[in-house]
Amino acid sequence: MRAYGISTYIFIISLFFANTSLAQRNNQLNQDIEKLLLEQKLTGAVWTIVDSNGITTDCAGLKNAESKESFKPSDKVHVGSIAKTILAVGVLHLATEGKINLDESVSKYLTDTKFINKWNATNPVTIRHLLNHTSGLEDLRLWQMFSMKASPTDDLEYAFTKNPFVLKIRTRPGRMFSYSNMG
Question: Domain locations in the chain?
Answer without folding.
Answer: 2-70, 101-167
